Each structure stands twice: as structure tokens, then as C-alpha cells.
UniProtKB/TrEMBL annotation:
<dbReference type="InterPro" id="IPR006584">
    <property type="entry name" value="Cellulose-bd_IV"/>
</dbReference>
<dbReference type="InterPro" id="IPR001764">
    <property type="entry name" value="Glyco_hydro_3_N"/>
</dbReference>
<feature type="compositionally biased region" description="Basic and acidic residues">
    <location>
        <begin position="16"/>
        <end position="25"/>
    </location>
</feature>
<keyword id="KW-0732">Signal</keyword>
<dbReference type="GO" id="GO:0031222">
    <property type="term" value="P:arabinan catabolic process"/>
</dbReference>
<dbReference type="GO" id="GO:0030246">
    <property type="term" value="F:carbohydrate binding"/>
</dbReference>
<dbReference type="GO" id="GO:0009044">
    <property type="term" value="F:xylan 1,4-beta-xylosidase activity"/>
</dbReference>
<dbReference type="InterPro" id="IPR017853">
    <property type="entry name" value="GH"/>
</dbReference>
<feature type="domain" description="CBM6">
    <location>
        <begin position="825"/>
        <end position="946"/>
    </location>
</feature>
<dbReference type="InterPro" id="IPR036881">
    <property type="entry name" value="Glyco_hydro_3_C_sf"/>
</dbReference>
<dbReference type="InterPro" id="IPR036962">
    <property type="entry name" value="Glyco_hydro_3_N_sf"/>
</dbReference>
<dbReference type="InterPro" id="IPR026891">
    <property type="entry name" value="Fn3-like"/>
</dbReference>
<comment type="function">
    <text>Catalyzes the hydrolysis of a non-reducing terminal alpha-L-arabinopyranosidic linkage in ginsenoside Rb2 (alpha-L-arabinopyranosyl-(1-&gt;6)-alpha-D-glucopyranosyl) to release alpha-D-glucopyranosyl (Rd). It is not able to hydrolyze alpha-L-arabinofuranosyl-(1-&gt;6)-alpha-D-glucopyranosyl (Rc).</text>
</comment>
<dbReference type="InterPro" id="IPR002772">
    <property type="entry name" value="Glyco_hydro_3_C"/>
</dbReference>
<dbReference type="InterPro" id="IPR005084">
    <property type="entry name" value="CBM6"/>
</dbReference>
<dbReference type="InterPro" id="IPR013783">
    <property type="entry name" value="Ig-like_fold"/>
</dbReference>
<dbReference type="InterPro" id="IPR044993">
    <property type="entry name" value="BXL"/>
</dbReference>
Length: 947
């Protein structure tokens, strides 16, 4: 049995005459002083207990239990009915930070209302917002983020967090940024490593996180499940080296759920949990979200780490201090806070319902319009599609208190005809039909002579859901393996209601996606079996075609409004990425049939991610997109379709024509792969920033505050915008810049600011956007810092990243980057300029990056290396399980002059670097220096050229 940890601070004050007199309860004192006082009164065991998600009460000091982690991504989640706002990507599409702050504030109020009702059930440390840039639209959690642009992500994340934290020194809630760092894939997320070069790290990934921390809007951060450059994100040295340098306040770092244990398995980064947990604490992790509410095992491993000398009491105190700092700032120990009067009356109150409607309205984005919108008083509207009469909750959504669907809202304005547009089928086996009970509660599926009907929902990616017509409930694989029709739809963390249809001779078999098991009929009862040979072959008999019925409905109406999109829990969600960008096949077929029957078709896409709706863009007269818009979605959609309101949304990420336009999902180097609107060379379906208004706008009189600016100055961009249309409308004036000459590859365009303006017919307004010149800096790998380069630039102003109305030139009087100094100094291999066949990896468990060859002939290059000192020898640190050869070449990796060759002996591990060297011949002048890895699996951490 472990002995209690011995105290290093002041002894616990058990004999204090009055707990209220303790300095930690005095709100007039500085936070640090209060935290120090409280920390000193806790026993070592009590301090240790603060390092778990569930912190025990300390009765003798009057400390209540405390828990980190309440989900509040776009409204309070998981705790019962509460106001549901549009998904995060939809909130960002409003391009209205003030509105996003209002949504955050409303969410914070509802968190407090639930907390006051049930302090143990609703904690005030909220796990939101998500500020991972939306690098790839196939990411399963795309709907949780804000934008592919890191600056816009920072703006929107800060806005939402600011609303959550409140306007007082005392925090309303304690917002937590997710997920640090370089996390955009669900596929193998526990074991994949994001290879992030220095420029991508500093210019893209870190840039999205910094604003909310630096401004004080967010006070905590959650690391991600993945590895970054070969090291688990929960052990990242960037927590201390970067994140905690952005503010003087204590930043709390909480683990993702069950992530600490992953450090041993499946990541195999440490031998056992005490060693892993010690490394995590020393890296900066303060709170372990592990083993659910049972803290015993986690704390036991940390005690063992202390006993082994892997941790010190100082390490525990540092983590405990940061935990207590948040609790003090939340006003937990104050006699009163500004939020004590918040009650359940605010939850889904009139103000929040109105805000949900306005947020949904401003998020709706008009992608195409040939003039059919706004609708001109149609007598009959056909409301069609699998999403036309339902609102769907995503995993981090709140529980909808009510639903205003497209069908409901449009039906309140005119006569409607409705068609869900899905196929109805029967499934015939050799012994009869698959049958479902009509009991409202559902029951086991069986096989018999009666032909039962099932509605088939195609959610894309080969995922289908079956709804029994007998009782309107979805088919699910129960925990006992029996198929039952008892679910309202795909739901839960482990979605048991989706199946793949795999072809077999004579028909098809059904494979449950969650279990991987096959539907099998034995003894008349339908179950799922692991053995593929036990699968029952079904013939699919079409009873009613969804496309045909949808076309009939469309033909009977003046206008058809077709609502399609994704199910937030199927084919793209946490743990599951998409593989393509296409609409589900059956949805696409239905859209084509509707348009053929009635050319006056409006396509409405409701989704948490972009789709490649290329056919619709060519044929359908109007296309509208929004994220899943929350409880007021239908009202907001009707407001826009009928022209009561202008479509206020603009895209915050590129809509590509095909997944062919994208690199490998696991390739995080947006610069090297020409990814996102910043570097994409192709023609997108809809560009970043795109969105139409019902009004028309003209741009004029672009004026820059100066033709030449220095690094410490601010460039002010002014432009006049005029509504030249006949109705009021909203325009998002977007300001981009492009650096026209540089030592390095620069973005084709980069958002620097925007203004959202509402103008009446004929109204003009001059808007101004300030661009701090320091924001034009990029990461200089030759010197390891940001640099504002001496170069000409261009300002691009317009309504999207590709729809530029006006431009102007200016010059930045910045630095001229000299040739890279290499002689007599150590060069980190990761600080190369370009590469091929290379991945970044960890140079050591604690810190440092290295490069590893993923294939023979891989190389890295150091451009403009200054060899004028005529080095005679190169020393380098290299490793490799099989060993191999490194070749140093000048100017070309294949045919350049060889100036040295290094033989790398086999090493025990990738962290066991051998100190090697080679004499140099012909190394002189300013040249491009290539290190060529002749073998796969070679690792280089650093090299040095010596005179």
C-alpha cells in the first residue's frame, strides 16, 4: 500500500476558527494569492485529488465537489431539453462575431441555470469551442469547427468563448478549447500522427488557438487524441512552449476522455501508466478524464509515479494550482457572484428562441440563384426529401425542446404537398419475408409469409437505415444480437441502426456497420452473426420508388423545395470520416427526378459539411445550404425562401467539385499539398467566402491608408459599398491580401478582415478594415521566428475569395531574409524548406522534432545555404533500425554534386541517435543543400557544418 504523499507546502489548517475568514474566500484579493492560500491548506492527498475530472469535496474547508467537462458546443448538451442553436460551422457562416457571442452568452446562461438546479450534473467548465481549422471537408467532425481559415476560426472561437465566459471578472463558465493540436481525422485517430512542418504549425494550427487564450475568452484547453510529429498530443511540449506563453493567467489543460490510458495502449508510447501519467503531468496536463467518475485508479498511478521519483510534489502542486485558479475565477469561493440570479426561466425562453431563429437565418447561405428565389407567392409548394420534415441532433447537440421543420414552416405559409422521397422495399429470403411488428414499442424481426415494408434511407458512404412501415421505428441490432424495430432513428455513440448492403449471388446480404456482423435468419428470428457464411441472402422487392413518388409530388406543385443532406451520426461523425464528397446516391437520384418533373426546383442542403453538388449546380435553378440549424431551422428557412429576410450566410470553407481535388486525408501539410483556399490552385465548386444576397451590391473607391507601411504599423483599407438593387440586403465585405514576392511559397489569397453590412435600396456605406502589418508575417524556418518580409503586396476586396471587385497595391518595408547560416551552428532537420518522401517524428519523448524517410530516395532541402565559410566536415545525429546511407548533394537531389556521404549504423530505437560525420568536398558558396535518404526508415534530428 502506498504511503500518503508528504506535504511540501504549508500544513493544512484544520483548526481555523472560521472558514469564511480564509483569504482564499476573499474576492478582493488577487487570484494568485487566493490560490496560494487554498493550496497551502490542502493536504498532499487532497492536492493530488484535484488532478482528476471528478474532484472530491473537502468538507473541512467547505469545498464542494467539482467536475470538469460540460458539453456546450452550440447549446447545452446531454442534460435535457435546452435551446439548440445551429451547429458551430453554421454559426461561423453568419460571419457575425457579435451574434456568435450572443449565442455563447445564452448557452452560458443555460449552463448556469442547470448548474444551479443540479451542481453535480452540470459543471461550469464547458468543453467548447472547437477551434481545429477545417482543413479537409471529409473530417467526420467538420460540423464542430468554424472555418478552414485559421484567423476566422480564431475570431469565431473567441466570440463564442467570450459569450460563455461572461462580461465580469468572475467567470460565468470556464470555456475549454478543443482539440490541441493538428486534429482533422477520425480514421485511426488514436494512432495516426499528424506530420506538421514548422510553417504549418505556426501559421495555421497554432494561429487558430491563440486568440481565445490571448484575449482571455477561453481559460482551458483539451489536447487531441492523435499524435503530432510522432508524439502524443497529450505529451506535447507546445503546451508549455507555446500555449501557456500567450497569457499571464493560469491555463487549465484537461485530457480528452480516456486519452491518458492510450499513451500505453494503443499508442505504445510508454511502458506503463505511472510512467505515462508522469510524462503527461510534466508536459502540462492538469486534469485526467479517465476511468469515468472513479478517480482511484488514475490517482493510484500518479502516486506510483511519485514513489518512483518520476514526479515531484512540485509537479503535483503546479497542476493543482492551475485547477484551483479556474475554480477561484468561477467565483466558487465568493460570497456571491453576478450570475446567482440565473434560473431555469432562461432555458428555451422567448429571448433564446428568437436568438436561435436569427442565428439560423443568418447562417443560411444562398449558393446559387437563377431568379427563382425569393418565392413569388406560389399557390402550392412540394416539400420533398428525407430532411424536409425532421430535425436531427448531432452527437454534441442539445436535446431539441421542439422542432420547426421545413415542412411545418412552409406549410404555415401556403398549401404544401409532402413526400419523404425514400424507397419502400420488402426483403425476401428463401423462407419468406423479413417481418416487423406493428407494436409501437417494436419487437424482434422475424421471417414469415407476410410482406412487411421498410423505408430505406441512404445516408451515403454505403450506410443505409431501415424504418419499419408497420410502426415507424428503425431497425436496430440489439445488445443480444437480435434485430428489433424499436428506435426513432440512428442514435447514440454506438450507432446500431445502419447497415451495408453487400452483393451476393441471388441478392444481397445486410451487414450491421457498428458490429460488423451479418443479418442472419435462424429459427425464424433475425439476428446478427459474425460468420459471413451465416448471412441470409435477401432479394430486394421495390414496393414504391421514392424518386417516382417525389416526382409526382413535384409535378403537382408550382415549386418544389427538396431538402437533402447528411445524418449527423452517419457517414461522417466522431470516429468516422467520409471517403468522398458526393450526395448519397438515392438522394441524388431523387433530386434529378424532381427537377425533371418540375424545373422550378429549389435544392436545400442541410449538412455539417460540404457536398460536391456538381450536377445540381449545373441544372437546379437555386441551391441553399445551411448546417443543421437547430430548433428554429424551419422558420428561418421559410423566412429566407419567401424573402422576408435576406440569406445572411457565407461559406467558411471551400466546396470542392470532387474528392479528387483533395490530398490524402492524413496529409496535414496544407502548403505542400496546395490545400484550403489559401493554396488551392483548382477551380472550386463554391469558393471560400461565397454566398449570395437577394440584393445587388457595387464596390467603389478603394483607398489604402498608405502606399508603404512598416512592420509596426497598421494598414487601413476603406471601400464604399452600394446596394444597387431594389430591396434591402446584407453583404459581407471581405478583405484579402497576397504577398507578391517572397523567399517562400505564399498563400494565393488570405483573409485579413471583413465587415457585414445591411443596406437599403440605393444606400451606400464606406467600411474600413484595419490590417496590422504584423499579421502579414510568416514563419521563417531559417531563424525560427516570425518575419515580416520586405515585399510588394496586393489588397483584394470583394464578396468572396474568388469574387474580387477591387484591388490595390502596397509595399511593406520589412526584413530581407539573408542566406541561411549553416557553418558553425546546429541546424534542426525539421527546419528544412521543402521535402519529398519525408514525415516528421519525435526526436525524443519530451521534446524536439526529427525527420524520417518514408521511402528510399526521400530528401529535404535547405535553400540558399551559406557555405562561404568552406566547411570541411558535416556532423549529424541520425538513427534507423536497419541503418542506411545519407547523401549530401548540392542544388538537385538526383543529379547534384555529392559533397559527402554518411553511413548510418543500425540503432536500437529511433530515439537512439548516433553522432556521425563525413568530410566535405566542394562545399562552397550559397547553394541549395539536399540531404538524400537512400533508405527508408532513416531518422535525422540535426546537422552541423564545421569549418
Amino acid at each position: 500500500m502506498n504511503e500518503p504523499v508528504t506535504a511540501s507546502g504549508p500544513a493544512a489548517d484544520d483548526e481555523a476558527p472560521s472558514r469564511d475568514a480564509h483569504p482564499f474566500r476573499d474576492p478582493a484579493l488577487p487570484v494568485g494569492e487566493r490560490v496560494g492560500d487554498l493550496l497551502g491548506r490542502l493536504t498532499p492527498e487532497e492536492r493530488l485529488g484535484l488532478l482528476h475530472q471528478y474532484q472530491a469535496p473537502v468538507d473541512r474547508l467547505g469545498l464542494r465537489a467539482f467536475r470538469t467537462g460540460t458539453e456546450a458546443l452550440h447549446g447545452l448538451a446531454w442534460l435535457g431539453p435546452a435551446t439548440v442553436f445551429p451547429q458551430a460551422v453554421g454559426l461561423a457562416s453568419t460571419w457575425n462575431p457579435d451574434l456568435v457571442t450572443q449565442v455563447g452568452a445564452a448557452t452560458g446562461d443555460e449552463v448556469l441555470a442547470f448548474h444551479h438546479k443540479d451542481p453535480g450534473g452540470a459543471g461550469r467548465n464547458v468543453w467548447a469551442p472547437v477551434v481545429n481549422p477545417l482543413r479537409d471537408p471529409r473530417w467526420g467532425r467538420n460540423e464542430e469547427g468554424y472555418s478552414e481559415d485559421p484567423w476566422l476560426t480564431g475570431v469565431m472561437g473567441t466570440a463564442y468563448a467570450r459569450g460563455l465566459r461572461g462580461d465580469h471578472d468572475v467567470l460565468k463558465t470556464a470555456p475549454t478549447l478543443k482539440h490541441f493540436l493538428a486534429y482533422n481525422n477520425e480514421t485511426d485517430r488514436y494512432v495516426t500522427s499528424s506530420s506538421v512542418p514548422p510553417r504549418v504549425l505556426h501559421e495555421y494550427e497554432l494561429r487558430a488557438f491563440r486568440p481565445a487564450i490571448e484575449s482571455g475568452a477561453a481559460v482551458a484547453v483539451m489536447p487531441s487524441y492523435n499524435l503530432v510529429n510522432g508524439r502524443p498530443a497529450h505529451l506535447s511540449p507546445l503546451i508549455g512552449a507555446e500555449l501557456r506563453t500567450w497569457t499571464d493567467d493560469d491555463v487549465l489543460v484537461v485530457s480528452d476522455a480516456h486519452a491518458p490510458a492510450n499513451l500505453v495502449g494503443p499508442q505504445n508510447y510508454h511502458h506503463d501508466l505511472p510512467e505515462a501519467y508522469a510524462h503527461a503531468v510534466k508536459a502540462g496536463l492538469d486534469s485526467f478524464t479517465q476511468d469515468d467518475a472513479d478517480a482511484a485508479a488514475t490517482l493510484g498511478h500518479i502516486r506510483t509515479a511519485l514513489d518512483r521519483g518520476l514526479l515531484s510534489e512540485r509537479d503535483i502542486d503546479a497542476a493543482a494550482r492551475r485547477v484551483l485558479a479556474v475554480r477561484v475565477r468561477l467565483g466558487e469561493f465568493d460570497p456571491a457572484t453576478p450570475y446567482d440570479g440565473i434560473t431555469q426561466d432562461v432555458v428555451n425562453g422567448p429571448g433564446h428562441r428568437a436568438l436561435a431563429r436569427e442565428a439560423a437565418r443568418q447562417s443560411i447561405t444562398l449558393l446559387k440563384n437563377d431568379g427563382i428565389l425569393p418565392l413569388a407567392a406560389p399557390k402550392t409548394v412540394a416539400v420533398i426529401g428525407p430532411l424536409s420534415d425532421v430535425l436531427l441532433e448531432d452527437w454534441y447537440s442539445g436535446t431539441l425542446p421542439y422542432q420547426v421543420t421545413a415542412r411545418t414552416a412552409l406549410g404555415g405559409r401556403c398549401r404544401t404537398v409532402y413526400c419523404e422521397g425514400v424507397d419502400r422495399v420488402a426483403l425476401r429470403a428463401a423462407d419468406g419475408y423479413l417481418q416487423a411488428t406493428d407494436d409501437p414499442a417494436g419487437g424482434p424481426l422475424s421471417v414469415g409469409p407476410v410482406r412487411s415494408a421498410f423505408d430505406v434511407f441512404d445516408w451515403g458512404g454505403g450506410a443505409y437505415a431501415f424504418r419499419a412501415a408497420a410502426n415507424g421505428r428503425h431497425v436496430s441490432a440489439g445488445d443480444d444480437g437480435v434485430l428489433v424495430n424499436d428506435q426513432p432513428g440512428p442514435s447514440g455513440w454506438e450507432v446500431r441502426q445502419t447497415f451495408r448492403m453487400e452483393d451476393r449471388p441471388g441478392g444481397m446480404v445486410l451487414r450491421n456497420i457498428s458490429t460488423g456482423h451479418y443479418v442472419s435468419v435462424a429459427g425464424g428470428v433475425a439476428t446478427v452473426a459474425e460468420d459471413p457464411e451465416a448471412a441470409t441472402v435477401f432479394a430486394v422487392e421495390l414496393i414504391e420508388s421514392g424518386a417516382v413518388r417525389a416526382a409526382e409530388a413535384a409535378a403537382a406543385a408550382d415549386v418544389a423545395v427538396v431538402v437533402v443532406g447528411d445524418h449527423p451520426l452517419v457517414n461522417g461523425r466522431e470516429t468516422e470520416d467520409r471517403t468522398d464528397l458526393r450526395l448519397p446516391r438515392q438522394q441524388e437520384s431523387m433530386v434529378r427526378a424532381v427537377h425533371a418533373a418540375n424545373p422550378s426546383t429549389v435544392l436545400v442542403v442541410s449538412s455539417g459539411y460540404p457536398f460536391a453538388v456538381t450536377w445540381a449546380d449545373e441544372h437546379v435553378p437555386a441551391i441553399v445550404w445551411s448546417s443543421h440549424g437547430g430548433q428554429e431551422y424551419g422558420n428561418a428557412l421559410a423566412d429566407v425562401l419567401f424573402g422576408d429576410e435576406d440569406p445572411g450566410g457565407r461559406l467558411t470553407q471551400t466546396w470542392y467539385r470532387s474528392a479528387v481535388d483533395l490530398p490524402d486525408l492524413l496529409d496535414y501539410d496544407i502548403i505542400g499539398t496546395d490545400s484550403t483556399y489559401l493554396y488551392f490552385l483548382g477551380t472550386p465548386l463554391y469558393p471560400f467566402g461565397h454566398g449570395l444576397s437577394y440584393a445587388r451590391f457595387a464596390y467603389s473607391d478603394l483607398v489604402l491608408s498608405a502606399p508603404e507601411v512598416g512592420p509596426a504599423e497598421t494598414l487601413t483599407v476603406r471601400v464604399t459599398v452600394t446596394n444597387t438593387g431594389g430591396r434591402a440586403g446584407e453583404e459581407v465585405v471581405q478583405v484579402y491580401t497576397h504577398q507578391r514576392r517572397s523567399r517562400v511559397k505564399q498563400p494565393l489569397r488570405q483573409l485579413r478582415g471583413f465587415r457585414k453590412v445591411r443596406l437599403g435600396p440605393g444606400e451606400s456605406r464606406t467600411v474600413a478594415v484595419d490590417v496590422p502589418v504584423a499579421d502579414l508575417a510568416f514563419w521563417d524556418v531559417t531563424r525560427g521566428r516570425f518575419v515580416v518580409e520586405d515585399a510588394p503586396h496586393k489588397v483584394l476586396v470583394g464578396r468572396s475569395s474568388r469574387d474580387v471587385e477591387l484591388s490595390a497595391s502596397f509595399t511593406v518595408k520589412g526584413e530581407r531574409i539573408p542566406p541561411r547560416e549553416v557553418v558553425g551552428r546546429s541546424i534542426e532537420a525539421a527546419d528544412h524548406d521543402e521535402y519529398d518522401g519525408i514525415v516528421l517524428c519525435d526526436a525524443a519523448p519530451e521534446a524536439g522534432d526529427a525527420v524520417r524517410s518514408a521511402e528510399p530516395g526521400a530528401w529535404i532541402v535547405f535553400r540558399d545555404a551559406d557555405l562561404t565559410g568552406v566547411p570541411s566536415r558535416c556532423a549529424l545525429a541520425a538513427a534507423g533500425a536497419q541503418g542506411g546511407i545519407l547523401t549530401l548533394r548540392l542544388d538537385d537531389p538526383l543529379s547534384g554534386d555529392v559533397i559527402g556521404t554518411v553511413a548510418v549504423p543500425p540503432t536500437p530505437t529511433r530515439h537512439d541517435f548516433a553522432g556521425l560525420g563525413t568530410p566535405l568536398a566542394g562545399a562552397a558558396g550559397v547553394r541549395d543543400l539536399y540531404v538524400v535518404f537512400e533508405n527508408e526508415g532513416l531518422v535525422v534530428s540535426a546537422l552541423e557544418f564545421r569549418p
